[in-house]
Amino acid sequence: MAEVVEFRVPAASAQxxxxxxxxxxxxxxxxxxxxxxxxxxxxxxxxHRNAAVAGPGYYAIIKFYSAGDASRAQRACNGQRLFQKSxxxxxxxxxxxxxxxxxxxxxxxxxxxxxxHYFGFNGWSSRxxxxxxxxxxxxxxxxxxxxxxxxxxxxxxxxxxxLPNHGVRTRGVALGEADIENSEDPLEFVTATRRVQKxxxxxxxxxxFQKILLVVLENGKVAVEYDSTQEELTDSLTEEELKGLVQxxxxxxxxxxxxxxxxxxxxxxxxxPSREMPSN
Length: 280
Known about the structure:
Shape: globular
Oligomer: single chain
Number of helices: 6
């Protein structure tokens, strides 16, 4: 049976495993990752100390992108010792009634990891179509009567992702923004500008991946579908029109403020893309 995998934070209970009976050891999360990543790409591995009433030891929550991978890992690992002396208990998390978790877009680093797993490092590419400084374009500072001491830096970016083996091209457009407390400090301005540029590129890359659906077949092969439900008005524009996007007076920048996964679930290194463009 085929399964659809999206470039989104896993939120379904079937994608999540609960592991308990863990013994304390150094690098416990690394040991768990080494075992469970053999069954498929992992979104996260989190180990926690048991509550006092449960006695000594640890439990872990492991999130897969694929529910099929999670199911195979549960069947193979439940009751096994794996990397410790006592056997582990592994179960698929049960759905909590009345609780609906918001589904967020993956950040660009995790999108690249997932793409590399399913397509191979050379099986996809991306390029920046345009990266434009739109600071002050919406006139927000003047309307709020803010002084020039505190400036806002905004960059709008459009990125194209190409999957040559599947004949698929997608685009993403996103906004990066940051406030500068002291606009008279050249170093602060340059640092903030660079950070916002990388943020805009990363969010645009993530936006482009949101339109790709991975159809994983039972034999392990992957088909790709374009998710037309995620289309934006900018997808119908030519590159020349995209590059002149900020010239359109009716443009609302807020529509490009992509809501990605919460930063509390990321390391500081993952907050921004480590590179603007993956290798071809």
